Amino acid sequence: MRGNRVWAEIDLSAVRHNVRFLKSVIGKHVEVMAVVKADAYGHGAVPIAYAALGAGCTMLGVGDSGEALELRERGIVAPVVILGAIIEEEIPRVVENGIQVTVHSKDLLAPLEEESARQGRRLDVHLKLDTGMRRLGISPSGAIEVAEAIRECPHLRLRGVCTHLSTVSGGNLEYAREQLAQFRAALESMRKLGLVDIETSIIHAANSAGAYTLPESHFDMVRIGIALYGSVPAGLSGVRSRLRPVLTLKTRIAALKQIPAGACVGYDQRYRCTDATLLATCPFGYSDGYPYHLSNRGFVVIRGSRAPVVGTVTMDYIMIDVTRVEGVQTGDEVTIIGSDSGVSILLEELSEIAGTIPYELTCRLGRRVRRVYVDPEELASTALTRDMKTSPWKSPDRLPR
Question: Residue 130: what are its φ and ψ, rounded to 5°?
């Protein structure tokens, strides 16, 4: 795309396609939360949120209050849930903007209740149970105590109960089923005591991998993260063809030079040309999100041909051996993730070479990578976007003072 040194093309129609496909997998009676934390895994939270909501998602999941507030400030009226932890200083704005909070410990209840009472608002909370992730959440044995404490807070409502499956994408379904058994047992205990309303509470446990492989984990809602962006969780390559990649990452050739046989390329002489080599320099480095571990290991696509990355990946540049790329010129587009003339580099493929996961590659895309949104006309035609442009977000219902 002319005018850009490095850019990511974000296909919003692919987002909508992926949501609809996932909804067909889980069934019409299960809701879908679009997880847009970490700036929608590097894709841009606000446009992704609007596209996902327009395709049928009913909730948005974020990692912290700053991400939630950004969505509100940009006109998002749908329910937003902070899946991660919050600190007391964040509570006033969270309550004011009707952002749902995940409760990971009993300690959070008092400040949430106090601030909600001060503002005269009712705040929805989700109780998270730690069934085996060992990161955040309350033990199943402590669920009743915390649920009872929530019931004693007149300005808090138990909107949801959730857990996080830790091993589904790795193929360990036995452990995931053990987690679900603990989760169900805790739910049943809370229901018997009237702490969970079957009609109004949302039960959720499944991530993208769970949506595919564990129908018993669907409950009332699934949380779709990496699959929303067209990538496949580990061990689920069989559905690769059913999802559409959302991101195409490109740069261009900034310089070409002929290198003699025996010459070294880049820092620390980590690559030596065995033959005369035509070398392309591209303005895309580890500060933009290209892993240093791809030094002498990565490859790109230019003019429909794969070309290897040679030498050390630097902060601002990578060097590419384009000796065998016919007709190569300065200014040519270079595909880092995506397809060119039928030749592709999938996000999963590149992450495997880098020794990491697809999530990390997209999340680490830097500020210099311009996000270019494909299909903006259809996005602008949705009622959700008209709300963004013309209607202020309405505050949540107030309680009588």
Answer: -90, 105
Q: Which tokens sit at 8?
A: 């990511």
> What are the extents of the domains in the chain?
12-229, 247-345
Per annotation, catalytic residue among 106, 192, 267, 292? 267
| CA dist., res. 300 & res. 321, Å (int) | 10
Above 70 in pLDDT, residue 236?
Answer: no
* Helical (H) or strand (E) element with 111: helix 109-119
Out of 23, 37, 128, 250, the active site residue is 37
CATH number of 12-229: 3.20.20.10
Neighbours of 2 (CB within 10 A): 6
288-316 pLDDT, tens digit each: 999 999 999 999 999 999 999 999 999 99
Query: Exposed, middle or buried: residue 312 (CB in 10 Å: 0-12, 13-18, 19+)?
Result: buried
Rounded Cα distance, 72 and 331, in Å: 40
pLDDT of 35 above 80: yes
Known catalytic residue at 37: yes
For 20, phi then psi, to 5°, come to -65, -40
pLDDT category, 234, cuts 50, 70, 90?
Answer: low
Burial class (CB in 10 A: 0-12, 13-18, 19+), 238: exposed
CATH of domain 247-345: 2.40.37.10
E strands along 51-195, which residues? Answer: 59-62, 80-82, 100-103, 123-129, 156-163
| CA 33/CA 184 separation, integer angstroms | 20
